[in-house]
Write a structure and sequence with these properties.
two-stranded antiparallel sheet, mainly alpha
């Protein structure tokens, strides 16, 4: 009678997400929540009935202040992430977000078949972002840029600081504040849709793969099978070897 043995894979603890990336991620999540909540209020404010003197009511002022303060944090946090794309480790490098090789497109198609079309096939495992996730983040960065341009463009007409004045050309280019405000509003829905899909996929991959996808954005570590880690294709879409 043949003996059966239990196979227990050997796991390697891999430091993937550096502290600056994790700080950027959670700070971005907080300011996006503040921007969306206050943005909805600014676009469609409540009619607040009160017996208090009008000079004692400053609800819209507080909401707009939170929106503008969060916008500044959002912008400079975004600029920092772009900088870290050049000085961070290979998992946060800008090359992992922009398709620059046939291998990148091939991996995108593989992930699309597995995650979107739910087709059966060989599992693709990525230590950092897979190619599809990296490309989606790149498109999200473009949406970040649009949101910053239109937001500060709208603020330029009322802001006294020199920084918002740098964006005064945006409404003029778009033909006025009305279209600028509409583009700003549409970009907000891009973020909302992205967050919904992002949270779903994080839970999905954490459940299916069991490699610490969720906890990695807290501590930075993932747990990767040794044989998978030794495969260069699992590291980054544009890498040819472990580095």
């Amino acid at each position: 009678m043949a003996k059966k043995y239990l196979f227990i894979p050997r796991l390697r603890r891999v430091y993937v997400w550096e502290l600056p990336v994790r700080i950027y991620h959670w700070l971005n999540a907080l300011v996006l929540l503040a921007l969306v909540a206050t943005g909805f209020y600014i676009a469609n404010p409540l009619s607040i009935m009160s017996s208090k003197e009008a000079t004692m009511q400053f609800t819209m002022g507080y909401v707009r202040f939170i929106h503008f303060a969060a916008a500044y944090i959002f912008f400079f946090n975004f600029m920092f992430r772009l900088y870290w794309g050049f000085v961070g480790n290979k998992y946060s490098n800008w090359k992992q977000f922009i398709p620059t090789s046939p291998k990148f497109f091939k991996e995108m198609w593989t992930v699309f078949k597995m995650d979107i079309l739910m087709m059966k096939g060989k599992e693709h495992m990525s230590v950092g972002h897979n190619a599809m996730a990296g490309f989606i983040y790149f498109l999200t960065f473009l949406a970040f840029l649009v949101q910053c341009l239109t937001g500060f463009g709208l603020y330029a007409s009322m802001g006294s600081w020199w920084f918002p004045q740098l964006f005064a050309w945006v409404p003029a280019m778009l033909g006025g504040d009305i279209l600028t405000r509409q583009v700003h509003h549409w970009a907000m829905w891009v973020f909302i849709l992205f967050v919904v899909v992002h949270v779903y996929l994080v839970f999905y991959h954490d459940y299916v793969e069991g490699r610490g996808e969720m906890s990695s954005m807290g501590g930075g570590w993932k747990f990767i099978e040794e044989d998978q880690f030794n495969n260069a294709d699992t590291h980054t879409p544009n890498s040819t070897k472990k580095d």
